[in-house]
Amino acid sequence: MLLKLRILFILFLGVLTTNSFAQENPNPEKYTAHNKGKFYFFWGGNRDNYTKSDIHFKGNDYDFTIENAVAHDKPMGWHVNYVNPTTMTIPQTNFRMGYFINDHYNISVGVDHMKYVMQQNQIAKINGTYPSRYLGNQINNGQVDLSDETFLTFEHTDGLNYVNTEISRVDDISKIFGITNTDKVQINLTEGAGGGVLYPKTNAKVLEKDRHDDFHVSGYGVAAKVGINFTFFKHYFIQGELKGGYINMNDIRTSASSDDTASQHFMFLQRIISFGGIFRL
User: Fold this and answer.
1) CA-CA distance, 113 to 196, in Å (whole number)?
2) 265-to-53, 90, 170, 198, 246 alpha-carbon distances in Å
3) Alpha-carbon gap, residue 38 to 177, rounded angstroms
4) N or C: more exposed end of the chain, with fewer CB within 10 A?
5) 262 phi/psi in degrees, rounded to 5
6) What are the tens digits of pLDDT across the range 63-120?
């Protein structure tokens, strides 16, 4: 009798164990279901637009403003320089790395390496004081012809470096597109905002002084963005972003002398395409 009870008890435990394993995680949770604790990074390129800007130049014997100066970026297009370690800082690039503090929000740091070139082929309004030798030549009737590069050249081409911190939100919108296995393909919507400092390498030549081209902390910027992220096989993604913001540079170096400075502020719009990875720490 005791032996029969033991056998029945063992059989009962076996049934319970079998049912337990059968019911445990019939649909295991996907890796992409949660983001908290994940680290990500990306590298990409950008195209930029800038609003017109009043650029104020000041030195020992001059103090003038170029009004509504037109500027543009300096694109390289699809080029091997983006992935060549020795030349990857030459084109307009974006680098960012971040950490998810919960499933939806992450904090990141990065560098937006834009390029800003004051259009040389333009006639702009000028006011203020400057050497009289330019009157009747480059300057007539309160306007300056910049096309011959004698009076002024001005650009941030290595570059308009926006070093910044952002906080962003990410939401999985895969279901909208009928995607159920997000570990293979996942579509996310992201938006965020941030701020930082401008650390440009300004290439300027003012009033035929020696050209200046050194890195210098010149001001600050703030920006907001919206983007879409396509993640493949859990860890790899392509991300497109639109980022717009405001830049104020009140301490731009224009020559080797600290007496020669410039200042400007303007709005910008970036279109960014980047490639990156996301992993759990």
Assistant:
1) 13
2) 6, 24, 31, 11, 7
3) 24
4) N
5) -140, 160
6) 999 999 999 999 876 666 666 666 676 789 999 999 999 999 999 999 999 999 999 9
125-137: b (≥16 Cβ within 10 Å) or e: ebeeebeeebeee
Asked if 170 and 150 count as a contact pair (C-beta separation under 8 A), the reply is no
Question: What's the rounded Cα separation, in Å, for the pair 56 and 196?
Answer: 22
